[in-house]
Write a structure and sequence with these properties.
Elements: E1 2-3, H1 14-24, H2 39-56, E2 64-67, H3 70-83, E3 90-94, H4 99-110, E4 114-118, H5 128-134, E5 139-143, H6 157-167, E6 172-176, E7 195-199, E8 210-214, H7 240-278, E9 282-284, E10 295-300, H8 305-314, E11 317-318, H9 334-338, H10 343-346, E12 349-353, H11 360-379, H12 384-393
Parallel strand pairs: 1-11, 3-4, 3-5, 5-6, 6-7
Antiparallel strand pairs: 2-8, 7-8, 9-10, 10-12
This protein binds pyridoxal-5'-phosphate (PLP).
Pyridoxal-5'-phosphate binds next to helix 3.
Length: about 400
């Protein structure tokens, strides 16, 4: 099996699992309890919080809140901030956010909020001028993802944060960094980002644990009310093993960043170049430099993406046609549509995403096998004249 769907989820690192195991077995005390038996889990949470603080470059561990996933982090940030600022009812976001963010704003729109969705160009880059023109005095919240889950394109969130604070200092800025964490350095302390969300299962921790960073002066209401956990801002007995897991994964991801930015990128580039050179109907959906190092998105003209995925699966290769939440539906990706990807390639676009566990031999295998798959699929396409033209152009 060759796993090239690391933007959907990642394998749990063995070293992460090893750190978690004691807290799934013998060290099961509730960390809030008074007796000595609870001291180890309480200390383990403290240690994990410090590791995540370092990973995100936060000034203080009080700015780190453990959640259950990236979606919860986004929902807490958005709903929590808007709840604290009810007289401002304007929001700015982008057309290419993850459904965890987009669908949350759709709910606010139904309740009378005005939401501006900023577009992207054909390479998936954000229209910064459009964003600047939309910022208003009554803007309550802006949210822009750090890196796009389908294309890997990185957005200039630090520059956006500076602009917001200079023009509309009361507006809050949330960054969905789920696809940036572990792939590029994040250092919130030196930025004007107010809130930022990450998810453990995207960087080799298990599914079911996330983090919300909120700068110390940012007020938000909890999404889950109850006990005093997470300083009263996220109730529920702490998921100690998973919190330990995300802490360890953050530490390991920090150590592996150099490898991600050099070796994972080299393999991604090799895969991308190999496919574009060897497959006549392949087009790179975005080739911008400013992308996370593990992601490529390639359109195969005049063929169905689902068929490509099934054929790849038959030879043991896991890939995806978009975000895991929308693959499974036949709707073309909202991200590629926002980029204006031609109709001929829209339905045949696939995302390949690597990790630090991807081997060069796996990349070579995909480059070698894909041309035969595409020969087969193009031979049954109803667009033979168009394909012949493409073949001649190459
Ligand atoms: N934001 C982005 C950019 C994502 O890619 C994802 C998951 O794919 C999420 C948010 C949601 O994260 P989770 O699955 O942890 O809820």
């Amino acid at each position: 099996m060759i796993y090239l769907d690391n933007n959907a989820t990642t394998k749990v690192d063995d070293r992460v699992l090893e750190e978690m195991l004691p807290f799934l077995k013998d060290e099961y005390a509730n960390p809030s309890s008074m007796y000595d038996f609870a001291k180890k889990p309480a200390a383990a949470i403290k240690e994990a919080r410090a590791k995540v603080r370092d990973f995100l470059g936060a000034a203080n561990e009080k700015e780190i809140f453990f959640t259950s996933c990236g979606s919860e982090s986004a929902n807490t940030a958005i709903k929590g901030v808007l709840n604290c600022n009810k007289d401002k009812r304007h929001i700015i976001t982008t057309k290419v956010e993850h459904p965890a963010v987009l669908n949350t704003y759709k709910e606010f729109e139904k309740n009378g909020y005005e939401v501006d969705y900023i577009g992207v160009n054909s390479q998936g880059e954000l229209d910064i001028e459009e964003f600047k023109s939309k910022l208003r005095k009554d803007t309550a919240l802006v949210s822009v993802m750090y890196a796009n889950n389908e294309t890997g394109v990185i957005y200039p969130v630090e520059e956006i944060a500076e602009y917001i604070k200079s023009k509309s200092p009361e507006a809050r800025f949330f960054v969905d960094a789920v696809q940036a964490a572990g792939k590029i350095p994040i250092n919130v302390k030196d930025t004007k980002i107010d809130l930022l969300g990450i998810s453990g299962h995207k960087f080799h921790a298990p599914k079911g644990v996330g983090v919300l960073y909120a700068k110390s002066d940012v007020r938000f209401t909890p999404l889950i009310n109850g006990g005093h956990q997470e300083r009263g801002l996220r109730a529920g007995t702490e998921n100690v093993p998973y919190i330990v897991g995300i802490g360890k994964a953050a530490e390991l991801a920090q150590e592996a960043l150099k490898y991600e930015l050099s070796e994972v990128k080299r393999l991604r580039d090799k895969l991308e170049d190999g496919i574009i050179k060897n497959v006549f109907n392949a087009r790179l959906n975005t080739g911008v430099k400013n992308r996370v190092p593990n992601t490529t998105n390639i359109g195969f003209e005049y063929v169905e993406g689902e068929l490509i995925l099934l054929h790849l699966s038959d030879i043991g290769v896991c890939a995806s046609s978009g975000s895991a939440c929308t693959s499974g539906s036949l709707e073309p990706s909202h991200v590629l549509r926002a980029m204006g990807i031609p109709f001929t390639a829209l339905h045949g676009s696939i995302r390949l995403s690597l990790s630090r566990f991807t081997k060069e031999s796996e990349i070579d295998y995909v480059i070698e096998k894909l041309p035969a798959i595409m020969d087969k699929l193009t031979s049954i396409s109803p667009f033979q004249d168009e394909l012949e033209k493409l073949r001649n152009q190459r």
